[in-house]
Amino acid sequence: MPRLRTVYRCQECGTASPKWVGRCPGCGEWSSLVEEVEEARPATLTAPPNGAGAVADRPVPIADVDAGEWDHRATGVAEVDRVLGGGLVPGSVTLLGGEPGIGKSTLLLQVLAAVAATGRRTLLVTGEESKQQVRLRAERLGALDPTLLLQSETVLPHVVAAIEDTRADLVVVDSIQTVFDPELGSAPGSVAQVRECAAQLVRLAKHRGTTIVLVGHVTKEGALAGPRVLEHVVDTVLSFEGDRHHALRLLRAVKHRFGSTSELGLFEMVDAGLQEVPDPSALFLGDRHAGAPGSAVVPTMEGHRPLLVEVQGLVAPSSLAMPRRSVQGVDGNRVALLLAVLERRCRLSMAGADVYVSAVGGVRVVEPGADLAIALALVSSLADYPLPHDVVACGEIGLAGEVRQVAHTERRLTEAARLGFTRAVVPTSAPDVPGLELMRVPSLDVALDAVGLVKALDSKERG
Ligand code: TYD
Ligand code: MG
Fold this sequence. Notes:
The protein is of the alpha/beta class. The chain has helices at residues 78-83, 104-116, 131-141, 156-166, 191-208, 230-233, 280-284, 332-346, 371-383, 409-418, 444-450, 453-462; strands at 4-10, 16-17, 33-39, 93-98, 122-126, 148-152, 170-174, 211-217, 236-241, 248-256, 264-270, 273-276, 295-302, 305-317, 325-328, 353-359, 391-393, 396-397, 403-404, 423-426, 437-440. It has a 9-stranded mixed β-sheet, with helices on both faces. A 4-stranded mixed β-sheet has the order 13-14-16-15. Helix 9 (371-383) packs parallel to helix 12 (453-462). Bound molecules: thymidine-5'-diphosphate (TYD) and magnesium ion (MG). Thymidine-5'-diphosphate binds at residues 98, 100-106, 137, 140, 269, 271-273.
């Protein structure tokens, strides 16, 4: 009979406390502690159940360690493989987080179907939807492969048994929050359950070389629900994002033990499921209303690929004592800095105005390379004068108002030229790019002049 004890565990970060407190000592969240009963374990180190750890590791010189290559196995869904740096690694555990309804189940069903189509055994453990529901969806997605097995189960030992029986290469558990181990005292869905179940699945994956993908829900704050602790347990954390009102979905790696976290995968949710977006720039600029004041296009880099994004600025008279500063998809601190630079270096004050800045299409553009475009969009709105429709702008702006170079300028500009832009406002160091006329500017005020904004502001003042 295991000895049970009561602890109070934070449902946000997993910190345990022997008594209830109003505020979590770990993450500072209020009223997040919930009573849980768990098995009191001896504090001595014991070998994990699969026998690993029975033999002590011998320290060796670092240079003697076999570097090896990670054995990425392509899933066949190109955008997923791009984010994972080639595919899923056997024996690894990946956590896919995202808001409800964003398309996690759809994405993973497509991944399972693609892997099953290559003849590998796959298993989908569904704790949220019935088998019928999954079948209906699979039918619509064309994913009725005989090597794709389906199990509707929430009891962990049954899931483990199924993984062992089917000897599946790839297992998806949708979702980890629905799985529970009856051996544990705490309620299904609690942090203790989720963490322990995930830990058992990780051990199983390492032991058998099975690739496991766990679906995890996120809270409204964007944290993976409760088990932030899970992020430490798994090898890879993917986040599936997007605005539910837009069709665009972004897949990015938040943590990845087998590669970089800088790649971005893009999908569009259509009737036939998630479609890969091979030409994202065209998609982002699709709804652009060229010729409107307050709009500028910036060639940004997402991972290793250039992406053209429209940024918009709106400067409106304010009736508030503290005018509003509202940003969406861009860095609020950068915008504050740009407003200060515009005021001090360009003599353009927006202190009495509400200022809104957003990146269009549900993307996030947080790199300083977008500074110049944001500043131009704001001044364009202030002057009520549109930027030329065939111009892109990229450059970081320094505190002295200077326009600084950004990485991969040539790649960015080549993409702009490909999409039909003919002119670019760039730092003085920018290299020539065929098909693009460069306006090399040393500072922000010169940039404003180059696109006609200085003249526009003058005539607005006079008129
Ligand atoms: P789902 O994968 O169930 O989201 P999650 O698992 O993240 O909660 O997908 C939810 C939405 O996707 C659903 O509201 C309908 C939409 N959808 C489509 O538009 N087309 C499709 O082919 C599918 C399968 C879903
Ligand atoms: Mg789902």
